[in-house]
Amino acid sequence: MDLQNSPNKPLTPIRQQRRRAQRMELIESCPYEMSEDLGGGTIVMHQGEALSIDISSGGMLLLMDQAPQVDQVIKVHLPTPTKSTNSLALVEVRWTRPILADTPTRRYLVGVKSIFGPHFYE
Question: How far apart are CA 96 and CA 37, in angstroms?
Answer without folding.
Answer: 19
